[in-house]
Amino acid sequence: MGGSRPARVVCENYKRELPHFAPWCAMSLGLAQRQGNLLDDLDRFCDEALAEGSIYSVLHRERDKLFPDEFFADLFSDKGRRSVPPSVVAVVMVLQRLAGLSDREAVEHYSFDARWRYAAGVGGYDRGGRGSFAHTVLVDMRARLEASGRSRRIFEVTVEAAKEAGLVGAKRVLDSTPLYDAVATMDTITLMRSAVRGLLKAADGELEGELRAVIKSGDDYASSAKPQVDWDDQDARDNLIDSRAKDAYACLALLEGRELAPEVKEAAQLLASVLGQDLEQAEDGSFRIARRVAKDRVISTVDPEARHGHKTSARGFDGWKGHVAADPDSEIITGTTVTAGNQGDAGAAPCLVEDIVPSSPAGPAEDGAEQSSPVAARQAGGGRRGHGADKKANKQAAHAARRAAHAARRQAKLRSRKAAAAQRDEQEAPAVYGDAAYGSGELLAYLHENGIDPRVKVQPPVAAGGLFAKDRFKVDLGAGTVRCPAGSTAAISFGADGSGAACFGAACSTCPLRTSCTNAIAGRTISISAHEELLKTQRGRCADPSFAADYRATRPKVERILAHLMLRRHGGRRARVRGRRKVDADFNLLAASRNLARLAVLGLRSTPSGWVAAGT
């Protein structure tokens, strides 16, 4: 993950992505009070009532170490009114995700729940601390984080603290869980009308007039409601589909070959995707719904990136998949990502295990990046930002000094991490655990290339109807042949990518075992993967009792982690936002909140030499 970006760049991105919030961009960094009040009744009550391992106690004690205000300085300008201290907002965001609350509910808890105020460090109401703030502050903070290019910084802080405390080893357990989208799944007619309506909305006045001129169905596409027809009449339904499809195709034909504005081009592409996936043309030229489901079907024009998904062959869902990697011993989540619901688990695995790949960077930030960690941010800020230091020369000198000091600290930290990683690798080899969804040849090859032990299951070969499975055939890659159970041999024809196939053809016509082997007229064909040898070796490992025992003792822990993440329906199983990027950031923040709750149980505490945990 790259370093912090200048506040000016963040501000420009912020204005471009959320123009209705542009007036708020000119806002300077607000600072929280760091001087505690021993006479504060709320703090004194919570000190006595809350357990030391409570997340509220840890956030109260370590808030300034985890989320110093200076850590978020790149999100704000040097001018403008003071923001709500970002350290306070970060605490509220973490507790909000942990409790599964909406923005309004989270602000209400902050205002009236003593534990939330204690965790945020604002104390009671007679202390002069911030009593409340608008729920839109949380919306604003998420937008600023997204525009900065480092929306994962809160999660990165939890992982960095866990690693420094010695809680993260070289093993990873992987799994995924469905995330239901935040929109309604649309049928074909609703998809078409919504896509046409979106195109008309994106077009300027002149182009909109041209588009409406080619629409011949009489539909003004102003309402999202379905047209009023007799839905029990098959002819009426067919005419409705045909007329709206012809409207859509007429609009696309009008736009063909033109230079289009980006938003118009995007709307036209979405319309073309909707038409291509759901419709087919009959012999008489009319359009009808195709009797199939497209492989990458768009299910909503409101969230075009969401997809149909299947966690199992019997259980489907609409939306996304949330993927996690975790340390099996401490149960700290070390990586997350979100993909469309129709994407396989193995394809998301490489980005989840980057931190144990020997060639990967030592940390999430680039060398020399400013404020790459909360400690660096707090030290670079000199503890506090002055309200009256405006002289340019002094600012430049202080900035140069901070950069030099940070660079030295960064190099020292890198050396320390490399030494710790080398010692760790001597004691514990990197390993990845996953179910059969991760047993693809591509992932096995990736793990072997990077020196990671693949402790993943591989699907056993199966054949429909109880016929002979592939494991009944002897594959000899050296000789390039396959021998069937009856003793016939067929040569393997390899393709450019290393995969191939062996066709037995005529040998099957007189084979006495044909009825137990194949129903194909052309005979049995055995497919050969480009990673056939790796798959065969891994299947053999899975049959080893010691491998199975280690797998059963380690891999199921990720199921408990996912259960904790999905505990709350709002913002847990059900996405709160639209678009893969935003869902990914929200899921990552959920993992950060779960990490902090786990670190509290493990006794995380800061010391002058760094983070430590109970018993380490």
Written overview of the protein:
This protein has 616 residues and is α+β, with helices and mostly antiparallel strands. Among the domains are: 1-151, no CATH class; 188-289; 464-536, no CATH class. The protein is 44% helix and 13% strand. The chain contains 21 helices and 17 strands. It has helices spanning 7-17, 41-49, 55-66, 86-99, 103-112, 114-120, 136-148, 153-164, 188-202, 205-214, 234-255, 262-278, 345-352, 374-380, 392-427, 441-449, 514-517, 532-542, 545-554, 557-565, 580-601; strands spanning 27-28, 81-82, 171-180, 279-281, 287-289, 307-312, 315-326, 333-340, 431-434, 453-456, 474-476, 481-483, 489-494, 500-503, 525-528, 605-607, 610-612. Strands 3, 6, 7, 8, 9 and 10 form a 6-stranded mixed sheet that branches. The chain has a 5-stranded antiparallel sheet with strand order 11-12-13-14-15, with no helix packed on it. Helix 1 (7-17) packs across helix 7 (136-148), helix 9 packs antiparallel against helix 12 and helix 11 (234-255) packs antiparallel against helix 12 (262-278). The two termini are 28 Å apart. Residues 1-5, 19-24, 360-371 and 382-393 have low confidence and may be disordered.
